[in-house]
């Protein structure tokens, strides 16, 4: 049984280091950073896990969010996630992974509970470490690579000039989606944001 007053763990997936900061693969970090600003929290290195962590509440006395940016590389993200979830006693259905998604056109956001990982190494690592796939995903569409570009190269490249014109707005909307999942639930959030 989930404690309705307990915290939520919001995981922004990405790779550490300045050279990756603007990559499509790092959009989860971007959303987590904006949420920290909204909540009045600041990221700091967490002693117990290889991660940057911030905490805060949505509104005055609202739900508590623990924001996590793993400082391992993407394919090892699950270790810090599972350790922090265990420390805060957060069940998997109150864990939200924010990540880039190749199979959704750029600019679209999708929310789902559970499901496959779609080849995403960060999700694969999370599922393995949590021992379940039953956590929430906020999927930030980045679209497929142009021409014959390798998807692995595409996700590790920066957003293009045209994409960057919309990026701030889309990151803001993704943060809205996370807050909606926490305050309203997955299904109402899907109804409000899918198809937008």
Automatic annotation (TrEMBL):
The record marks 100 as: Stabilizes the basic form of H active site to accept a proton. InterPro entries: Pept_tRNA_hydro, Pept_tRNA_hydro_CS, Pept_tRNA_hydro_sf. TRNA binds at residues 20, 73, 75, 121. The active site is at 25 (proton acceptor). Its EC number is 3.1.1.29. Its main location: cytoplasm. GO terms for molecular function: peptidyl-tRNA hydrolase activity. It catalyses: an N-acyl-L-alpha-aminoacyl-tRNA + H2O = an N-acyl-L-amino acid + a tRNA + H(+). The record marks 15 as: Discriminates between blocked and unblocked aminoacyl-tRNA. PROSITE patterns: PEPT_TRNA_HYDROL_1, PEPT_TRNA_HYDROL_2. CDD domains: PTH (cd00462). Keywords: Cytoplasm, Hydrolase, RNA-binding, tRNA-binding. It is found in: Cytoplasm. Pfam families: Pept_tRNA_hydro. Belongs to the PTH family. Monomer. Hydrolyzes ribosome-free peptidyl-tRNAs (with 1 or more amino acids incorporated), which drop off the ribosome during protein synthesis, or as a result of ribosome stalling. This is Peptidyl-tRNA hydrolase. It comes from Micromonospora humidisoli. The gene is pth.
């Amino acid at each position: 049984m989930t404690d309705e007053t307990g915290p939520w763990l919001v995981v922004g997936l990405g790779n550490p280091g300045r050279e990756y900061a603007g990559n499509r693969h790092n959009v989860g970090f971007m959303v987590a950073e904006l949420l920290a600003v909204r909540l009045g929290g600041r990221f700091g290195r967490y002693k117990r896990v290889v991660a940057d962590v911030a905490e805060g509440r949505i509104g005055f006395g609202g739900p508590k969010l623990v924001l996590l940016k793993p400082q391992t590389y993407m394919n090892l993200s699950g270790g810090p996630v599972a350790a922090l979830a265990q420390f805060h006693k957060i069940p998997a259905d109150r864990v939200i992974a924010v990540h880039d998604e190749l199979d959704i056109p750029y600019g679209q956001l999708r929310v789902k509970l559970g499901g496959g990982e779609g080849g995403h190494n960060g999700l694969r690592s999370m599922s393995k470490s949590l021992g379940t796939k039953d956590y929430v995903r906020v999927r930030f569409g980045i679209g497929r690579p142009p021409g014959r570009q390798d998807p692995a190269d595409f996700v590790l490249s920066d957003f293009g000039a045209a994409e960057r014109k919309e990026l701030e707005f889309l990151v803001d909307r993704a943060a809205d989606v996370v807050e909606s999942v926490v305050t309203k639930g997955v299904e109402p959030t899907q109804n409000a944001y899918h198809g937008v």
